[in-house]
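ESCALATION

Customer reports they have been waiting on this structure for their group meeting. Please prioritize. Original submission:
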Amino acid sequence: MGFEQLKLGMKVEIVLSDEEESPKLVSQFEGTCSDGTYYVSAPIYGGKIYPISVGNILDVYFVEKENFYKFKAKVLDRSRKSAISLLKIKALDEIKKIQRREFFRFECMISVNYRVVDSKKAVQDKDRSFKNTITKDLSGGGLCIKIEEKLNVGNIIECELFLNDSYKVVFLGKIVRITECEAGKGKYKYEAGVLFQKIDDKSREKIISYIFQEQRKLIKKI
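Update from on-call: job pushed to the front of the queue and completed.
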């Protein structure tokens, strides 16, 4: 994949290469310069613009057609345009396709319906009804849901995720982690980490866009 295929508004995840415990930060492409440099929005973390300095080295991750890509970049400048804080970056190497599933996890409580499907065929069980619950967090690679029953690692579940009143994301996910909730802390007994197994590009982009928009709402409250 070449840099000419990077699109305005494409959502990305940023990690500071030169910061030992850098969080995963959500950003997006905001423009291309004639000299081959790029503008990305300054990422938001914990409701605030994350402090990234000129000279910082970044690992930039993004999704295109269900493939995961990465390139390394250097921050050349900081600026502001139309109330959006921007970083000017320069790529330090070529875009590489990678095997990666852990995108930025946004803590949120969103309504989600789920039901276990045939793990071998990954087909819906029409006789099994959906159960409603909520998410603990959400990312471009999966989500964590709170559940009352104990499911098994490896189970395939069909989910209906309600991002807002007008859009429902339907996907198949694989349970990769089950942890017990602290006793006496609400009705949910377990948390299940779910990796997307079958989800279309539009739905994944909707999820990443939702995360980015919610982060922007948080910064406006400050």
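Sent to customer with the following note: The first strand starts at residue 11 and ends at 16.
Escalation resolved.
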